[in-house]
Amino acid sequence: MNISDQLSYSTIRIECKTNAGYFSTGTGFFFNFCCENNTCRPAIVTNKHVIKDATECNLIFTLADSSGNPIDEKHWIANIIGLQSAWKLHPDPDIDLCVMPIANIINHLNANGIRPFYIGLDISLIPSEKQKAELQAIEDIIMVGYPDGIWDKINNKPIFRKGITATHPNKNYNGKKEFLIDAACFNGSSGSPIFIYNEIGYLTGNTFNLGQKRLLFMGVLRAGHLHSIKGDICIADQALKPVSLSYIPNNLGIVIKSENLLYFEEMFRKELNL
């Protein structure tokens, strides 16, 4: 399976419901923490605001056959209730990340003859200091998720979008461990993993590494910049003229750097006494 196909199995659609009956969708992705000795702690990562105020959510898993191969047309929906207690939040209020361990869910499914298929990211994809030092101000990126809730519901597949870095990915944008991307970012894309993915080569300094592939997990989309369009709504025979404000994306997304996930790696290691 090639890299882009693998990435199509790295995300999961999150459908949330609040007590007030409101529904929303967001993007989560699979991440394997504490990987050693052929074991790991699997989890789903998303933004805190994706699950904020939600009381339950549906997670849509692709199923596998008896040989462990994905069956794209077959899915299983896990309904998670008591949602707030299921997620572990990053303690920094300015870091919009949370994780939900899913080992118990996976074990329960397997015990009932249900085999979910997914491909998890891990810390080996987070750029090292050497890799970060080699990054250019402008890098090609891809984003994987469910913009405006759009997805291939028959095959349970996410949407891929391309863009570039809009600020230097090795700099902290406005003093936070974040950077900007120039890509179409819409509601539902929150929680999308952002990658630098080069298929035919990439630059390091003035050297082009022809034929060499590169995949770096750069971070998690948390928000997109909007600008307003103001227009007057005229009401006949009345002096009052209410103003209508519409907001449209300006295609600049804010990405939380992937290194912020290392907090959860350390947290799980302490829990497991590793």
Give a short overview.
Helices cover 14% and strands 46% of the residues. The protein is mostly beta strands and 274 residues long.
Helix content: 10-25%
Overall domain count: 1
Query: What class would the helix/strand composition place it in?
Result: mainly beta
What fraction strand? over 45%
> What is the β-strand count?
16
CATH topology: Thrombin, subunit H
CATH class placement: Mainly Beta
> Can you count the helices?
6
Biggest sheet features: 8 strands, antiparallel
Mean pLDDT: 88
Gap from first CA to last CA: 32 Å
Give Rg in angstroms. Answer: 20 Å
Q: List low-pLDDT spans.
A: 233-244
SSE arrangement, N to C: HEEEHEEHEEHEHEEEEEEEEH
For the record, the CATH architecture stands as Beta Barrel
Give the overall silhouette: globular
What's the SSE blueprint?
Layout: H1 3-7, E1 11-18, E2 23-36, E3 39-46, H2 48-51, E4 54-64, E5 70-81, H3 83-86, E6 88-89, E7 98-101, H4 103-111, E8 116-117, H5 129-133, E9 140-145, E10 159-165, E11 178-182, E12 193-198, E13 201-204, E14 207-210, E15 214-232, E16 243-257, H6 262-271
Antiparallel strand pairs: 1-2, 1-4, 2-3, 3-7, 4-5, 4-8, 6-7, 9-10, 9-12, 10-11, 11-16, 12-15, 13-14, 15-16
Question: Could you please describe the fold and organization of this structure?
Answer:
The protein is built from 6 helices and 16 strands. The two termini are 32 Å apart. The chain has a single domain (3-228, 246-271), classed as Thrombin, subunit H, CATH 2.40.10. By secondary structure, it is mainly beta. Strand 13 (201-204) and strand 14 form a beta hairpin. Strands 1, 2, 3, 4, 5, 6, 7 and 8 form an 8-stranded antiparallel β-sheet that branches. A 6-stranded antiparallel barrel has the order 9-10-11-16-15-12. The protein is 14% helix and 46% strand.
